[in-house]
Design a protein that fits this description.
470 residues, alpha+beta, Alpha-Beta Plaits, 4 domains, five-stranded antiparallel sheet, 17 strands, elongated, disordered N terminus, disordered C terminus
Length: 470
């Protein structure tokens, strides 16, 4: 309603009220004249007229007081702030919860997995037990089993709540075989969104498959066995096309041939996890080997420009030609074995199925250095090969820095290099990273371990807790 419409309605209402009051006045005069004529003839006429006048005055005063009070209440209601708008669900809104104290605002994130009976009310009882501890359920995934259901929660719990108290509450509500692990902000992504992101990474780069499987399944170990050895002997056992699921292991046909085994001793796999992992492996197999075409030109301190890019199986011929230009000493320091076997390793090293490879080439396109980042179970190995004419010019240090940065992006806690104590170039390049280093001699070789996150070896950024029920 506009202001003009409101003004017209007010004037019309005022006119009607005046007409009604005038009619009431004429009626009152007529009634008063009739009453006066009747009372005057009686003996108490004047007294009754005075009493009637007093009663009329009292009634008029009360009417004026009541009208003013009502107008004041209406004006106060019009100036009050509007109530909050809520969805009309038909339910009564609960009373507002008291504000938490300052100490109760600190919370931590937990990932919890527990098994409940497959019957109505079991999940409700578990949620009620968590709510009694002021624990907020951020997400829930269910993994149906033949004997029950595995529920995986992402929880926000008060910081003062001990893990043992949480697991006791879950056990009291019927949860069994519970597993509890600290979570972080990356776990706030819902399940479908995470699967789409992992599938996209796998589709763009073959080297992302092991990383995607680890992010999907948590802390696990991957073992890739080639179909044949370098000498041509069969290595991998035959794996069914649909894969094999055991309690703590999953085995698939590797995209490059052979087998791919995933182990997680601390937590058994569920059929849902098996189906998700198989989908990623099948996607990688269908797309075939692929390397993202990324290039970056780098100017060396001496002024020469080199191009650093991702390398793949298509660089096999150029890598063999570089091997021919390298000395026997350089190849021996890199491969720690007979020089004649170096070329046979290149097919494995350049395959994106086993890691990432960076190549450095000159402006004319000649390959002069290779840097490999290889997935080795829970750890990551780094290796460098620089042509003799390009050593001591900063090429190897630049490749190493980029490889370690890649390892840090994938969440690797440690990167190790296997070399010889006489390989001063590799030792200097590792020291130049400015990261905590560990040195260890194994069977006459030097193993240097760097920690990209800066976390010492005896500390883990995320601690997993395995607790007994109750």
């Amino acid at each position: 309603m506009t202001d003009a419409t409101s003004a017209r309605s007010a004037r019309r209402h005022h006119w009607r009220r005046d007409v009604v009051e005038l009619a009431a006045l004429f009626t009152a005069v007529a009634v008063a004249d009739a009453v006066a004529n009747t009372l005057v003839r009686g003996p108490s006429g004047p007294v009754l007229l005075c009493a009637g006048a007093v009663a009329l005055l009292a009634t008029a005063g009360f009417h004026v007081w009541w009208a003013r009070r009502r107008d004041h209440a209406v004006r106060r209601h019009e100036h009050a702030p509007p109530p909050p708008i809520t969805a009309d669900t038909g339910a009564t809104a609960p009373p507002a919860a008291p504000a938490p104290e300052a100490g109760a605002r600190e919370t931590v994130l937990w990932r919890m997995r527990t098994t409940v009976r497959d019957e109505p009310g079991s999940l409700a009882a578990l949620c009620t037990a968590l709510a009694a501890r002021h624990i907020d359920i951020l997400s829930l995934q269910t993994h149906p089993l033949s004997t029950g259901t595995v529920d995986e929660f992402l929880l926000r719990a008060p910081a003062g709540l001990a893990p043992a108290q949480l697991t006791r509450a879950v056990a009291g509500a019927g949860g069994t075989h519970s597993w509890l692990e600290r979570a972080d902000a990356h776990d706030l992504v819902d399940g479908p969104t995470r699967m789409l992101a992992l599938a996209t990474r796998t589709a763009l780069d073959s080297a992302e498959l092991p990383l995607a499987l680890r992010q999907l399944l948590g802390r696990c170990t991957l073992h890739s066995v080639p179909a044949r050895s370098l000498a041509g002997r069969p290595l991998a056992e035959a794996v069914p096309a649909e894969g094999v699921l055991a309690d703590h292991t999953m085995t698939f046909r590797a995209p490059s041939g052979g087998s791919l085994t995933i182990e997680r001793p601390q937590l058994p796999f569920t059929p849902t996890e098996f189906a998700r992992a198989r989908a990623l492996v099948e996607l990688d197999t269908r797309l075939g080997p692929r390397v993202p075409p990324r290039r970056e030109v780098l100017t060396l301190p001496e002024g020469n420009d080199i191009t650093i890019r991702r390398a793949g199986p298509g660089d096999l011929a150029a890598a063999r030609t570089m091997h021919q230009r390298c000395s026997d000493r350089t190849l021996a320091q890199r491969y720690h074995g007979p020089v004649g076997d170096a070329d046979r390793y290149l097919g494995h090293l350049l395959s994106p199925r086993f890691g990432r490879t960076l190549a450095a080439e000159t402006a004319s396109g000649r390959l002069v250095a290779l840097g490999h980042l290889l997935w080795d179970g829970d750890e990551t190995e780094v290796a460098l090969l620089v042509e003799d004419a390009w050593q001591q010019r900063g090429v190897g240090a630049e490749l190493l820095r980029r490889l370690v940065a890649m390892a840090a992006e994938t969440g690797s806690e440690s990167v190790y290099a296997v070399t010889q104590a006489s390989n001063t170039g590799m030792v200097a390049a590792m020291r130049g990273l400015g990261l905590p280093l560990d040195y260890q001699i194994e069977e006459g070789t030097l193993v240097i371990t760097a920690r990209p996150t800066g976390v010492p070896a005896h500390r883990k950024p995320r601690e997993a807790l395995r607790v007994r029920d109750g």
